[in-house]
């Protein structure tokens, strides 16, 4: 296992009816599974998580955005994901509704889903068990968590910080 962290962003985008945009991944990790679009930080050039979100949104979704178009909803550290690597993930919500579904991209194809439909999709186990429930609970707020992934597919989660936005 590579002892270094992969650092990535996930971008949660919604349309005007409240459906969330997901990508069916055409590449590892999570090949064939549905997840929010995003990608790895360009660490060579010192890219920040917010800058990465803007770049990934441009490359994968064709969106022109600035760092102020994003709300950082969560930060997750996953150790030994798929028994291969460690991940530090920044979960961003895009603050503007999307008008249409992006065309397919080399990273995967896109579709909008209602929040209720997500649990019926093929999604990563860590997303199903913890990340999606925490995202919905902390939407417009913030959470930080860590996960120890085990070779048998089980996960131990620790919620480190929770700020739920109240209206």
Write a concise keyword list for the protein shown above.
Nucleoside Triphosphate Pyrophosphohydrolase; six-stranded mixed beta sheet; 2 helices; 9 strands
Task: Describe what this molecule looks like in 3D.
- With 167 residues, the chain is of the alpha+beta class.
- 16% of the residues lie in helices and 38% in strands.
- It contains 2 helices and 9 strands, in the order E-E-E-E-H-E-E-E-H-E-E.
- It has helices spanning 49-61, 125-138; strands spanning 5-12, 20-25, 34-35, 38-40, 70-81, 85-94, 108-113, 142-149, 155-163.
- The strands form 2 sheets. It has a 6-stranded mixed β-sheet with strand order 4-1-6-5-8-9, with helices on both faces. Strands 3-2-7 form a 3-stranded antiparallel β-sheet, with no helix packed on it.
- Strand 5 and strand 6 (85-94) form a beta hairpin.
- 26% of the residues are buried.
How are the strands of the biggest sheet laid out side by side? 4-1-6-5-8-9
What is the name of the CATH class? Alpha Beta
Measured as a percent range, the helix fraction is: 10-25%
Rg calculated over all Cα atoms: 15 Å
Number of domains: 1
In N-to-C order, the SSE pattern is EEEEHEEEHEE
Query: Would you tell me the structural class of the helices and strands?
Result: alpha+beta
Quote the average pLDDT.
92
Provide the low-confidence segments as ranges: none
Quick rundown:
The chain is α+β, with helices and mostly antiparallel strands and 167 residues long. 16% of the residues lie in helices and 38% in strands. It has a single domain (5-163), classed as Nucleoside Triphosphate Pyrophosphohydrolase, CATH 3.90.79.
